[in-house]
Specification:
Length: 216
């Protein structure tokens, strides 16, 4: 027959065995899993979330030739002649820094500013020569403007999306060329005519006419 001390030891043993091992305050935390891509489609539904370090890579590098679009306040006032040329073609509007700024402000009122932001991001990507930065920027563009989970998702057809998913396996500076053209065409056909008829554009024309009359 076991003694009282042995019986107590036998009684408490199983309970102690069921307890998880305690971790002292000096124990090292478990190592973080390696950050390998978990899928090839670069969708945002998987566990490969982007860290703050990846977002910092979105800053223009020293090799980038495209400067960020200045804010509307930072753009110099366009001349009356320049404002009138915006109505001649969408290309002339988009090649004018002041025109892009005015058009972007208009798109913001229509809740479609992401189209211009995506187009500008693609322009900056195409001007990048560093492959490592290209990889990072391409993935951020996908996350911000192509992923169906993004609030800034742009409207792309299934063919273009499938093409992007394939190209994202080996991103390049031209990964989004087809998508950029599709969004450019969308802005040209849909938003551009409304911009020319908007109070914002008419106000710029009137300001130009008023400036010309004062100079005369």
């Amino acid at each position: 027959m076991p003694t009282a001390h042995e019986a107590e030891t036998q009684h408490t043993g199983p309970e102690e065995a069921d307890q998880p091992p305690s971790m002292s305050s000096h124990a090292a935390p478990p190592a973080a899993p390696s950050r390998n891509p978990c899928c090839l489609c670069w969708c945002c539904c998987c566990s490969c979330s982007w860290s703050e370090g990846r977002r910092q890579a979105w800053r223009p590098s020293g090799e980038s030739k495209l400067q960020p679009l200045p804010s509307c306040e930072a753009c110099s006032t366009p001349s009356p002649e320049e404002v009138r040329t915006w109505a001649q073609s969408f290309d002339k509007l988009m090649h004018s820094p002041a025109g892009r700024s005015a058009f972007r402000a208009f798109l913001r009122t229509e809740y479609s500013e992401e189209n211009m932001l995506f187009w500008l991001a693609c322009e900056e990507l195409k001007a990048e020569a560093n492959q490592h930065v290209v990889d990072e920027k391409a993935r951020l563009i996908y996350e911000d403007y192509v992923s169906i989970l993004s609030p800034k998702e742009v409207s792309l057809d299934s063919r273009v999306r499938e093409g992007i998913n394939k190209k994202m396996q080996e991103p390049s500076a031209h990964t989004f060329d087809d998508a950029q053209l599709q969004i450019y065409t969308l802005m040209h056909r849909d938003s551009y005519p409304r911009f020319l008829g908007s109070p914002a554009y008419r106000s710029l024309l009137l300001q130009g006419g008023s400036q010309s009359s004062h100079e005369a």
